[in-house]
């Protein structure tokens, strides 16, 4: 099964960066596509703590019926609590939200038009899948003519003015995302290229646009969280204790540079809208 071990704190830290990075062209097309609808049924797969809802619910003018599909029970439960807070802070009551504690890889749609969503949303999800998981899921949506808005799909990252060592450890980190796990090799940073070629081959209408995080020297929480992820992933990719030792030194140095507000990072992503 796919990775579900994510922390609420990490999803909260990344939310403002995701929001700033979302690709305007892709998002405008999504809004145009549904502008004539008097209500929308949206299913958010891998919904975490409900960040997609948090982004969209006041931007879409029509009443919305949301379904969160999230396997991690703690995140699913928290998402409903958080959503209540977001809704309470607006004057409108045009929203319903339910959470299904199930895998989006086993998504099924009933017979009537009302039993399938108008669109599926996915934020920061597809890098977690293997090629065959993605293909089966994407085929399923095409077969049911369901549009997909997939945002903040990981493509790579680099430290601004990075040293050779910076590049080397970032590369190890990216390779770790593509490593073979017990359910197969995950797409990681290949998820965008893989999806684009999948839709091109099938002649399915799609639009892709960049949605990069620009992380400044003062964004210490996100920089430190990224270094924490690297501290767990990179040693697994290193061949011996001596190299692991060098990495520890690099990490300590980078953390010190973050505290001194000397580190900038760009994380590359793509957003895509697919309309079968
Ligand atoms: C990187 S997080 C993104 C969460 C949320 N979309 C956001 O942007 O804050 C990926 C989410 O997908 C969930 N997930 C992974 N595999 C899943 C599956 N097969 N079915 C349902 N949820 C899954 C994880 O538990 C996690 O909450």
Describe this structure in words.
Strand 4 (119-123), helix 5 and strand 5 (148-159) form a beta-alpha-beta unit. The longest helix is centred in the C-terminal third of the chain and has 19 residues, at 241-259. The protein is 43% helix and 21% strand. The protein has a single domain, classed as Vaccinia Virus protein VP39 (Rossmann fold), CATH 3.40.50.150. The chain contains nine helices and ten strands. The chain is of the alpha/beta class and 276 residues long. The chain has helices spanning 8-21, 24-33, 51-56, 73-88, 131-143, 164-177, 191-202, 220-233, 241-259, and strands at residues 40-45, 64-69, 95-100, 119-123, 148-159, 180-181, 184-185, 205-210, 213-215, 265-275. It is globular. The structure holds S-adenosylmethionine.
């Amino acid at each position: 099964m796919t990775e579900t071990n994510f922390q609420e704190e990490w999803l909260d830290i990344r939310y403002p960066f995701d929001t700033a990075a979302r690709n305007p062209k892709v998002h405008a097309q999504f809004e145009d596509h549904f502008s004539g609808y008097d209500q929308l049924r949206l299913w958010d797969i891998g919904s975490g703590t409900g960040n997609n809802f948090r982004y969209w619910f006041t931007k879409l003018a029509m009443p919305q019926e949301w379904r969160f599909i999230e396997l991690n029970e703690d995140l699913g439960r928290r998402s409903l609590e958080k959503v209540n807070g977001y809704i309470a802070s607006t004057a409108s009551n045009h929203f319903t939200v339910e959470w299904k504690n199930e895998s989006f890889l086993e998504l099924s749609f009933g017979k009537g038009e009302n039993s399938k969503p108008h669109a599926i949303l996915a934020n920061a999800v597809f890098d977690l899948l293997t090629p065959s998981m993605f293909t089966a899921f994407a085929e399923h949506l095409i077969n049911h003519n369901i549009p997909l808005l997939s945002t903040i799909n990981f493509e790579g990252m680099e430290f601004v003015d990075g040293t050779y060592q910076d590049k080397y450890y970032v590369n190890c980190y990216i390779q770790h995302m593509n490593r073979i796990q017990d359910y197969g090799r995950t797409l990681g940073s290949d998820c965008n290229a893989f999806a684009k070629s999948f839709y091109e081959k099938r002649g399915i209408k799609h639009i892709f646009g960049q949605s990069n995080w620009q992380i400044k020297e003062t964004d210490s929480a996100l920089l430190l969280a990224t270094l924490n992820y690297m501290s767990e992933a990179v040693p697994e990719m290193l061949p011996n204790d001596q190299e692991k030792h060098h990495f520890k030194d690099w990490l300590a140095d980078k953390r010190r540079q973050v505290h001194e507000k000397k580190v900038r990072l760009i994380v590359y992503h793509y957003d895509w809208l697919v309309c079968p």
